[in-house]
Hints:
Structural class: alpha/beta
Strand content: 5-15%
Largest sheet: 3 strands, parallel
Amino acid sequence: TGIGPPGCITDEVDFREEGDKxxxxxxxxxxxERAKAALAEAGYPNGEGFPKVEYLYNAxxxxxxxxxxxxxxxxxxxxxxxxLTNVEYKVESERRxxxxxxxxxxxxxxxxxxxxxxQIFATGNKNNxxxxxxxxxxxxxxxxxxxxxxxxxxxxxxxxxxxxLDAYIVCPIGYGSSTLMLKDKVKDLRVSPIGDxxxxxxxxxx
Length: 206
């Protein structure tokens, strides 16, 4: 529903939970009719005459499944054909970072703070794959870095996320997850909201 995932915090408040309640985010169920109307407004009613578009992704069973799912939904709901290009990660990464793509699969592992997910879209950031450049966004990011008031900082973080979503430079479709299997005697293994495994407090109970 947004760029910053669950577990990101601003002053111990979950950024995603707060954002989904009070700010503009993507609806889980999508909006096919709105997409059809936008397609028609752009000059492609029912997908007619829509140009060839490539979706770039790196090889893995999960990425392939996601790409094929998206391809099927675009065809079924909008009658547009998307070509899938599956390459090794090194090739995909080089193309994505150099801007040689139309649509591309990407993932980002940030910290517990929303800023780590939002600052990458500032002008000149080496991970700004869409090459997004907006002076207003850049200024907002600069203000967030220097703002001491937590309430004002949180509000500006949500404003930055909304700005990135409104520009359609990124379309969040999922948040990563991890699975752990532990024996019952393993106690107090801790996992952070972003998946870091903390062994500092672990002990074995015989």
